[in-house]
Design a protein that fits this description.
By secondary structure, this protein is mainly beta. Helix content is 14%, strand content 49%. A hairpin with a 3-residue loop joins strand 1 and strand 2. The protein starts with a strand and ends in a 5-residue tail after the last helix.
Length: 83
């Protein structure tokens, strides 16, 4: 299973997680994709070990080779350091 992780900054409004609700601040966005294209999307506070599932973000790709493009798209949408 391939995993990609990128540092993002999430300002006011945050991102919704299944486990703890809304979180903000300096986070790490991680996506993992198996060979069947199933993607799991999670976040964690920078430097922390515990991952939280991003609500309603898991999906299945038609082609697992699109994992990197999906990850970069999520970074582009969620990285909002200025709010």
């Amino acid at each position: 299973m391939a995993e990609l992780c990128t540092k993002i900054t999430v300002a006011r409004g945050g991102v919704m997680t299944d486990e703890v609700g809304v979180i903000t601040g300096e986070l790490e966005l991680c996506t993992s994709c198996d060979e069947d294209g199933r993607v799991r999307v999670s976040v964690r506070y920078l430097g922390a070990d515990e991952l939280y599932s991003l609500s309603a973000a898991d999906c299945t790709l038609h082609d697992a080779r699109d994992h990197q493009a999906l990850h970069q798209s999520l970074v582009g949408v969620l990285n909002r350091p200025a709010g």
